[in-house]
Amino acid sequence: SCSSGENAEKPNDYRRLCSFDNDAPGSVPQGWKIDETGGEGTFAQWQVTRDPSAPSANNVIAIVENPNSDGTFNLLVAKETDYKDVKISVKIKALGGKEDRGGGPLWRMGDANNYYMARWNPLDENFRVYCVKNGRRRQLANAKVTAAPSTWHTIEIEQNKSAIVAKFDGKTVIEVADKTLDKGGMVGLWVKADGRTAFDDVEVISIDKGDR
């Protein structure tokens, strides 16, 4: 499912790229797990699907069915990852959802109730960065973003110590600092409520060791 820039046996290598192209359609991608924050255990159905429009053809990972609503956060987590200071890039397309759409990456995840995350919501035409601690979500910053939901877009996050920079389609939309979560953790994908969203080309670069 994923390739790493140095030694594939080391899960926290300095560069990790997941394109999902070697995973079987209909499966949960190898090395990833489905989880949720604030839900009742009715997990959204994440599957590898074929998408001819995918940034790297032909497979993507997507929520294909989602019974959730309100304050449920649907998660797909790269299990054996551990990053602190990090750059994350992900391609995203909003497929549907009446309450909520879009989503984005999560990082420094200790468990399903503790992580940072960024998300684009085309229904509200905004982009936000949050800290989730003990299951409670706190907004760190908000930006207006207007973009077509049915096409692919790119979210980029960089966190170095407490400084967080977020880009949408190459443009810096948020710069904020937060010291709440100061340890490394897992990375993953985040979608709220009933959102159905596709992701592709999840790239994670550790900047603890410097870029190489």
Describe, in plain words, how this protein is organized in 3D.
This protein is mainly beta. Helices cover 0% and strands 57% of the residues. The protein is built from no helices and 16 strands. The protein has strands spanning 2-4, 15-18, 32-37, 45-50, 59-65, 73-83, 86-96, 104-111, 114-121, 126-133, 136-144, 153-160, 163-168, 171-177, 185-192, 196-206. The strands form two sheets. Strands 1, 2, 4, 5, 7, 12, 13, 14 and 16 form a nine-stranded antiparallel sheet that branches. The chain has a seven-stranded antiparallel sheet with strand order 3-6-15-8-9-10-11, with no helix packed on it. β9 (114-121) and β10 form a beta hairpin. The relative contact order is 0.25.
Helical fraction equals under 10%
Helix-strand sequence = EEEEEEEEEEEEEEEE
Global structural class: mainly beta
Inertia-based shape:
globular
Profile the largest sheet.
9 strands, antiparallel
- Ranges where pLDDT stays below 50 over 5 or more residues in a row are none
Strand content: over 45%
Computed Rg: 15 Å
| Number of E-type strands | 16
Helical segment count:
0
pLDDT averaged residue by residue: 94
Q: Give the termini separation.
A: 22 Å
